[in-house]
Amino acid sequence: MTGRNAPDAGRLRTAARELVDVALTIQEAAAHATAALTDVAPLRALPQAPSAAWPAYRALLRTTTNGQGLGCAFTGGGRLSTAAAKAGAMVGAESLAVRVLATSLRLRVAAVAVAHPELTADPMLARLIDAAAADRDLEAVRALRALLKDRGAVRALSQLAPVFGEVLALRALLDENPLNDAAAWLIATGKGFATADPITGMSNRAIAVLDTGEGAARRIELTAAESARLCTRGSLLGFLGNISALGTTGRALIQSVEGPDGVIRHVLQAPGMRVGRPDGESPQDLLGAFSSAVLASSPYSRALAEAVADYGPPPGAELALVGHSAGGAAIMNLAQDPGFCARHTVTHAVAIGSPVDFKRPAGTWVASVTNQHDIIPTLDGQGAGTCFDLHPDWYVVDYGDSTHLFPLCHSIDHYRANLADDLPEARDLIDERLTPYRGRVVRSQAYLLFDRAPEPEGSPFLTVPTRAFDGPEGTVDLPIRCRDRDALTAYFAVHPAATAGLLEGTGLGPAVQVAGRVLVAVHVARNRHTTVGGYGELQVGVVVPGPFRRHRRSPAWPDLLRAADLRRSGSFLVGSAVDTPIMRALGPRLWGGETYLTPLEIRLGARSAHVTADLILTLRGRLGPGLPLSDPGLVGYAREGGAVLRSCVRTRGRARLHAAPSLRLVVEPRSAHPLADRLRELGLDGARPLLCLSATTLQTLRDTAVPVPPG
Amino acid sequence: MSAEIAAIIAHAEVLRSDARALAACAERLRAIEAELKAGGGAPDWLHASVTAHLAACAAAAADLETAAQRLSRYADKASP
């Protein structure tokens, strides 16, 4: 273990801090000179003494531009001075204050190198640091490229981590990009959170505001394996073990412990950022980590506050907050939230591997534990090299160990192992301060966190009035609601003779034809979550224009794309199968026709499909590219007794129209299944579809069929 | 005395004060380097950097003093 207390390093940090004071004094003088030059009041006196005014202005101009003195010293809040400062930065004209700050940063790097000699002993790292400090941009880029090529991004960043903030700030101070100067200045002077990316100058707050939402939390049950890993007695390692058990899965945990004095206290435990793309649901994503670190309140911290409110500790109950990574920043936001602290007595906040240097909780004992090779805590610009004692009242453990690889050194398990094995003093001290929370755990509750309150499942499409229906195997709710369905409809062209007589007496009109051939639809669907359980289905139907058409010669195609409840055209059912007994019994009662029971395998990908109906057919192959469209739903007709029934599947979701599929339907050879026979009669054995419509994750509503009135 | 003249005099006084502060900065820089050298922990490059900063501080102090003097003269001449 290495720390920050070597005497040489201490002297270097003291010198770096004094240089910051010097730089600030110089900057102040530059601001005064700029103010004198741009103030309009002295200009108004110019007509009274022009001969004396010009030498004064010449002297001021020299003071603010002399490369041997203050350098390009335009500074201050005025538009003119800001524009002049940016123009100066763009041509690489630094001010003396910036040069002194750069020296301060180099001393900070030197201080870190005392504890991390590899930073200067490693020629590639030393080359990069020297180039950044010497304002040799091209050389710095080459050095970084060589480092990345030699070590890979992970190792390069891990090795640079102890001086990451300093190197970025050095480069930002000395480069020609004026947009990142403010961030570099904040890092170098320790005056606040680095408000912009030190490389591009893009505002962190601009990124953080993308993370919107009021924050929400819902109770969830942990799995038995996860519950078994939760600590049964409160301790620092126990709480960190809980965070490890939760993982970065968008969840948080609250526990109640009975302290040694018999008082029940509560501990909020917040894991870090979930790896992967930012999403619009979880506050534990990359954007959540950014906003938690940059802003005083974020969806993550608000979601945690809601979890605590739901957990219901009595007013004023004592609360300890423990967080890792982004969770540490989020719990610090709670600890500095006056409203939250008015409702609860926040006694302790423990942040592990978190960028929390600029959090300002009041009246809370704070511990911050950071590994010097972990980049995440340096995201606020202050890392191992900081020369500022920003929190004399905090307990700060900033250590280094032999594991230099990020993100391994950032993991909660690595921090926990370090505290268990390598940092016994730090662990014991934090545990001692957590004594009121070191007792038997009497309650545990996990929460799933959201950016904003989640919609009730299926809302609004599936939130409809329902009614009970006495089915053959018990009562079911109608309409049948499905919240996750994959479906494929393949349209085949068959000889008209194959369908002769099928539509006779239905009043549904002659079958829809394409180039003299009749269109037949083979529809398969896997309904994963429905109000009658999951089931698969297969339907074969002749595409018909539907009843009551006023203009019998008008094409039926446009009607096929209308919403299902407005559509006349549909498929006249000539055979169907399902794979669950309940639907085998229910289907004919609800929608008419005959339904067979058979195992169905339906695998639907973005570009391919694989369907097997036991003893009936296989339909598989590539779907090819698809044109996205809103799924139009289904309309089906079936003959029942002497009547024709119309049923409708209303859908919500996207579908893809595949205009050039290369699927092939093969009827099960030698199968005597009635549906196999029907497919052979239609000439579909070995047929390829003209086009296909595929959809995944559809929501559907399906009610009983209604008789079509006689025409 | 008009507001314009008062503003010029105020700027001159601030700049004169800044010139003294810059001179003090030069002294602080010398002290910082000396302290690090005495402790044996001064990086090799530090001397060259501090020497450059010292020269710049001296030049900046002179520039500020000159600007202050010329602003004072401007205020004198512009006074009715």
What features would you describe in this structure?
The complex is a heterodimer of chains A (711) and B (80). With 711 residues, chain A is α+β, with helices and mostly antiparallel strands. Chain A folds into three domains: 7-202, no CATH class; 216-382 and 389-450, Rossmann fold (3-Layer(aba) Sandwich); 475-707, Acetoacetate decarboxylase-like (Beta Barrel). Helices cover 35% and strands 26% of the residues of chain A. Chain A has 22 helices and 26 strands. In chain A, the strands form four sheets. In chain A, strands 1-8-2-3-4-5-6-7 form an eight-stranded mixed sheet. Chain A has a seven-stranded mixed β-barrel with strand order 11-13-14-15-21-22-25. In chain A, strands 17-18-19-24 form a four-stranded antiparallel sheet. In chain A, helix 7 (123-133) packs across helix 8. The longest helix of chain A is centred in the first third of the chain and has 32 residues, at 7-38. The model of chain A is unreliable at 1-5 (pLDDT under 50). Chain B has helices at 3-39, 46-78. The mean pLDDT of chain B is 91. Chain B has one domain (3-78). In chain B, helix 1 runs antiparallel to helix 2. By secondary structure, chain B is an all-alpha fold. Chain B starts with a helix and ends with a helix. The chains are: A alpha+beta (711), B mainly alpha (80).
